[in-house]
Task: inverse folding
């Protein structure tokens, strides 16, 4: 698994809100990998376990989103709440906070657990599954995106439980199609060293799916991603991201955005469910968390750099937002283990 270099999220982006999205993705340090190559033959039933627990202590920083790419065939995916979707060749599934889910086709009888079926593949970190009754094949390539987002921040939490990009809808970009084709090819060839390219492609795929999701949101949508389509909120977020240490007031922020205090507060409350200054604080905490995770600067230096007059004031703010004192959080972040690969070998 490779960590996204700082330049990854700095690619020029002319879309509305593109720089804000780039800022956030850079701050959460995306890293990606392909972890599973599955061949499932009808009839089959497969349980994919829950990969992320929202009650994980905040110090562990490991937010994992799962991708399933359908390389051939089709099947039904059933979510934990009972919703079912048929997915077909070329479809892309993204589960931002994956709960237990099931794949099946035909009368598969009892469901088998993926954890009981995985076998070590030919690439480091790559696993394989061959399962089913010998009928028509469904091929799937599965990957994950890991990030160091604070679990209480408003970004990924506003995504739906499942995003599906349909290959047959005509709106799938050439970029997406090309990336998926390359991921499947590299997975099949399993050439030594290709896991590095696979990780980078998963990161790019994640960014493109998010960008496309934003473009489909209606004007009435709410949540952090919906804010990227709101000119007032985008200007406000750009100001905060560009100068997080400034002693922002709602009046100052409204003035910089060319709007009134009332309009700014109403837009934040309606679209993002928080006050403007709450967003300022949350962004500062995300920046501080990344500094503590990746560097050795003292808490006093970090506090000053993000706009706090004293380490004590920063400590209070960080604990209020995260529930964990900065020192304890840093210790946990430094010792956190990477996201585990499937647990069982053949």
Result:
């Amino acid at each position: 698994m490779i960590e996204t270099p700082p330049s990854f999220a700095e690619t020029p982006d002319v879309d509305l809100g593109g720089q804000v999205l780039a800022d956030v993705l850079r701050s959460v340090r995306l890293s990606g990998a392909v972890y599973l190559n599955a061949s499932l033959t009808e009839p089959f039933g497969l349980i994919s376990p829950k990969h992320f627990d929202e009650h994980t202590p905040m110090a562990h920083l490991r937010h994992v989103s799962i991708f399933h790419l359908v390389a051939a065939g089709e099947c039904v995916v059933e979510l934990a709440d009972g919703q079912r979707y048929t997915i077909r060749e070329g479809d892309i599934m993204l589960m931002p906070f994956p709960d237990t889910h099931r794949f099946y086709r035909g009368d598969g009888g009892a469901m088998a657990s993926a954890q009981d079926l995985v076998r070590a593949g030919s690439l480091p970190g790559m696993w394989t599954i061959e399962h089913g009754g010998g009928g028509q094949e469904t091929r799937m390539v599965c990957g994950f995106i890991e990030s160091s987002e604070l679990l209480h921040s408003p970004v990924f939490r506003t995504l739906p439980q499942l995003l599906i990009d349909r290959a047959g809808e005509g709106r799938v970009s050439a970029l997406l199609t090309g990336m998926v084709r390359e991921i499947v090819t590299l997975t099949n060839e399993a050439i030594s060293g290709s896991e590095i390219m696979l990780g980078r492609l998963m990161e790019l795929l994640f960014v493109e799916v998010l960008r496309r999701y934003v473009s489909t949101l209606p004007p009435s949508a709410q949540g952090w991603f919906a804010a990227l389509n709101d000119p007032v909120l985008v200007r406000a977020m750009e100001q905060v991201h560009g100068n997080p240490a400034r002693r922002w007031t709602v009046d100052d922020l409204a003035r910089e955005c060319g709007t009134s205090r009332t309009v700014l507060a109403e837009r934040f409350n309606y679209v993002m469910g928080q006050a403007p200054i709450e967003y300022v604080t949350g962004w500062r905490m995300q920046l501080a968390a990344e500094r503590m995770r990746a560097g050795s600067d003292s808490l006093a230096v970090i506090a000053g750099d993000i706009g706090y007059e004293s380490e004590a004031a920063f400590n209070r703010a960080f604990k209020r937002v995260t529930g964990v004192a900065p020192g304890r959080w840093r210790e946990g972040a430094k010792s956190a283990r990477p996201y585990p690969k499937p647990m069982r070998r053949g």
